[in-house]
C-alpha cells in the first residue's frame, strides 16, 4: 500500500536530538495502556486545581461523561496568573501581527491584566457564571482576551467565525441564548478592512436576549450605533481595575460552545467543559508538538473562530506557558511569502496548519519559502483533513528543510483535542498517515456491524473509551447528542463519522467523512445546510449538493438545482445570484464552486438523492452502479446538460 500512496514507502525516524530531549518518550504508550485513568490523572496534575477530584471518571451514565468529579479550578488562572506568580510575567504570551504589518506584543503579565479588566467589564454588564457570550471577531488580541475573560468569570463563550453571515450568527445567538456580543468594527483581510459590526446589527434584528454589544475599534470603519445597547470596548474595558480574583469552578462547568455542521441543516452546539478539556488540550499540545516553553516560538496558523484556534492558539499554548505568534490575515497578503516572513521574523520553531494551505504553497512554488530563513523550525503539524503524501513530503522538504518531523493530527470539534497523531520524538513517520491513537485514547476501525477489523482493512473510525476533552453534549439537545454520536454502535462507542484504513503495520489512515458532511479547506460544511439555503431562494425548486474532490481545497462544493417554472430561463446570471445567495446566507466558505441547473435529480425508489452518482458527475467520472435509480435516463440528461450549465470560479 505504501508504494501506491506516493511516498514510496519512505519512513522518517524521529531526529536523534529531538528524541533524546523529547517531552515524551516511547514508554508513554505503555504507561497509558497499563492504566488509562491514572495516565490522564497524571496529565491533570500538570494544572493547578483549588480542590482535588474524588473520582477521575464517572461513566455510570454513558454517553454522559464526567471527568475529575468534584475537582475545582479556574481555566483562566491556569492559563495566566499561575505563570505570572511563578515569575514568568515578562515572558511573551503572544507576538501579534496585523495584516497591514502593525504589531502588538503581550507578555503573560500584560495579558493577565487585560483579561482581568475585561472580566470586570463583563461583570459590570451583568454577565454571570453560566451566561453565554457570543464573540464575533477578527484575529486580534481582544478576541483571546474576551474568551479568557469569559472563562475567568465562568461565562460560556460562543465564538462565531468572522466569515459567517448575519443569518448564521443570528441562529447561533438564538440557540445559545447569548446575552452579550463582543465584536469589532471590522478586521483586515486580503489587504482591505472587512466589516463585522453590520452583520451583528443585522443578526440582532432577528434574535432576542442580547442586552449589550461590546465593540472593539480595529479598522476605524463607520459603524451604526444603537444607544444603550452598543458600547465601545475601549470605553468600558480600559477604565476597569486590572485586579480580579479568579473564582474556582467545577471541573464540569461549561467552558464554551462551538457550532459545527452536522448532517442536518441545523448546526450543532458542541459543548466543552473545563477540567477535562484543559487537561487534554494542555497535555496534547505539550506532547504532540514537544513544546518547550522556555525556547520555542509556537504558531498555529488558523483562525481562533474554529476549534483548532480554541485548543491550540488559546487554551493549550497558554496552559503550557508557550510563546505564540498570532497573525490576523491571509497567506497571500501583501505577498505570497508573508507566512515565511513571519517565521523568519519571530524565529518560529513549531508551525501547525492545514493541508489546504500547504497545497496552495505547493502551487505557488518552492522558490517562495526558499527565499526566507526557516531554520528556526523544528516541528511541523497538520490538521483538518487528510494530508496527501505529496503535500506531506513537500511540507517536510520545503518548509521543514528535511529536518522537522511532520505530525498529522486527527481530531474534531467534538473531541476537543488531538486523538490520533504521531509523536515527534517517538514515531517513525509515514507521510499521509495519522498513524497512532494518542496515549490514553482508544480508537478502532470497525465494520458496518461494529466488529473490530484487523490490520490491512478499511472501515469506520470509532472511539471506544471516553476521553477527558470529549464533548459533553449538544447544547440544549441531549437526544441529538446520543443519536448523532452514540447510537450506531451503542452508548459506549463514539461514531466519528470518518472512514479509516488500518495498514499492514496497524497504522491508521483517515479517509474522509462517510456522512453528508463536506470538508472544504479543512472546514466542515453540511450538504444539507447548503441545500436548504439554495431551496430558500425563490428561483429554486430542489437542490442536491455534493463535495467533489478538489486539488487545493480537499473538496469543493458542487450543487445541482432544479429551477421553479418561472425561473426556467434565467441562465448564467441566476447561477451567479445563487452562489452569492449561499455565500450571504451561510458565509463565503459555503459558496458553491459550481452550480449546475438540471431538469431532474437522480433518486432511489425510496426518494433519497443519490449523491454518489452526482459526485461521479461532479468529478467527471464514469457513472457507478445505477441499478437502484428510478430512471437512469435522469443521469444522461444531467450529463448532457453539463458543459452548457456549469459555472466555475469567481
Ligand atoms: O473528517 C475529519 C477531518 O475533519 C473533521 C473534523 O472537523 P472539525 O470538527 O471542523 O475539526 C477540524 C480541526 C480539528 C474530521 O471528522 N479531519 C480533521 N483532522 C484530520 C481530518 N481528516 C484527516 N486527517 C486529519 N489529520
Automatic annotation (TrEMBL):
A GO CC term assigned to this protein in UniProt: cytosol
UniProt domain AMP-dependent synthetase/ligase: residue ranges: 86-466
Record-listed E.C. numbers: 6.2.1.1
Modification note: Acetylated. Deacetylation by the SIR2-homolog deacetylase activates the enzyme.
Domain Acetyl-coenzyme A synthetase N-terminal: 27-79
EC category name: ligase
Annotated InterPro entries: Ac_CoA_lig, ACAS_N, AMP-bd_C, AMP-bd_C_sf, AMP-dep_synth/lig_dom, ANL_N_sf
Cross-referenced Pfam families: ACAS_N, AMP-binding, AMP-binding_C
Keywords: Acetylation, ATP-binding, Ligase, Magnesium, Metal-binding, Nucleotide-binding
Binding site for ATP: 384-386, 408-413, 498, 513, 524
GO biological process: acetyl-CoA biosynthetic process from acetate
Molecular function in Gene Ontology: acetate-CoA ligase activity; AMP binding; ATP binding; metal ion binding
Catalyzed reactions: acetate + ATP + CoA = acetyl-CoA + AMP + diphosphate
Residues that hold CoA according to the record: 189-192, 308, 521
Family affiliation: Belongs to the ATP-dependent AMP-binding enzyme family.
Function, in words: Catalyzes the conversion of acetate into acetyl-CoA (AcCoA), an essential intermediate at the junction of anabolic and catabolic pathways. AcsA undergoes a two-step reaction. In the first half reaction, AcsA combines acetate with ATP to form acetyl-adenylate (AcAMP) intermediate. In the second half reaction, it can then transfer the acetyl group from AcAMP to the sulfhydryl group of CoA, forming the product AcCoA.
Modification N6-acetyllysine occurs at: 608
Protein name, as recorded: Acetyl-coenzyme A synthetase
Residues that hold Mg(2+) according to the record: 535, 537, 540
Domain called AMP-binding enzyme C-terminal: residue spans: 529-608
UniProt lineage: Bacteria, Bacillati, Actinomycetota, Actinomycetes, Geodermatophilales
HAMAP family for this protein: Ac_CoA_synth
Stored NCBIfam families: Ac_CoA_lig_AcsA, PRK00174.1
Annotated organism of origin: Geodermatophilus saharensis
